Amino acid sequence: MNSVYGRLPVSGHYLRKRLRLAGFSRSLATFSLLLIVIGVVVFRLGGIVPQALIGLLLLGVALAALAFVVALYGLARVWIHGVTGGGAVVAGFGVSLLALAPFGLAAYLAFANPQTNAAYTEALAPDSIAAVIDAAQPTGLPLQAKTPATPSIVSGRRYLADAPTVYKAARDVLDAKGWKIDGVIAGDPAVAAERRANGDLGVSGTVDIPVPTPRSSAELEASAPTPQQPDSDQYRISAVARDPLFALPSDVEIQIVQDGNETFVDMRSVSRSIGIDLGQNRRFIRSFLDDLDAAMTGKGTTD
User: Pairing with 134, which of 44, 62, 119, 270 sits 20 to 30 Å away (CA)?
Assistant: First the structure.
């Protein structure tokens, strides 16, 4: 007598293995990302020195690379052997890529830009640029260039406008960018230095005596905006720009010189604390000149 179960199709239940490294990959990638972000934030707040930041970044990228390798291995096992835990390993893969992305971008910038810490426009003399690079070269800091390479070259600007107009537009751009202005020199600095050396303070002959002004006129003049700098045919502005990520300072010099009906704008930007800027100084100059073009719209033609 045959059993009724003998006529049923053969069936079974298969147990799928679970990937043990899935959670480890996700946790390791998340920890590396948090380590990198916290290190940058603490450095921006002044809590650690640059050497400590670089140590944290190296540790973070090492952990992120390990998480990436583990995630790749887990994805291969999920795809080939069908083990469970694919969601966690995909999350670890994505977070590790997110943590490694800034370092990949930094590697690309290091490859695409000159290994230097300065940028300037063509009109500035190369010998003065070399002197500035040697003076600003840091000592004992990581990422320091052993020999200064050729700095990045950016095209300057020529405006069919007078120097005071261009100077006012440049000050507006500096204020909008939030760059700290260290000083402004109006006129030829060499002539001013020679006058000071000879005891000439710029006043020849008699000295003008101020005439008493009525109160109503004085209040009206006080309410009117005062010029930031006397009109001149040339200006030299010294400012400090900081990169958006680490807030590392760069010394920026803006030179505005009028020649006839034209005014030329040239710039120089040198990193203060690192030897390789990854093209940041060139981006400073290009960004400023592009904003200056927009500020000069309607005030003069640009070349």
Answer: 44
Average pLDDT, the chain: 76
Rounded Cα–Cα distance for residues 35 and 274 (Å): 23
CA 43, distance to chain mean position in Å, is 15
281: left (phi over 0), alpha (psi -120 to 50) or beta: alpha
Buried b (16+ CB within 10 A) or exposed e, 3-35: eeeeeeeeeeeeeeeebebbbbbbebbbbbbeb
Q: Are 231 and 81 in contact (CB under 8 A)?
A: no
- Give 15-34 pLDDT, tens digit per residue: 456 566 767 888 899 999 99
Extended strands (E) in the chain: 118-121, 152-154, 157-159, 180-186, 234-242, 249-259, 262-271
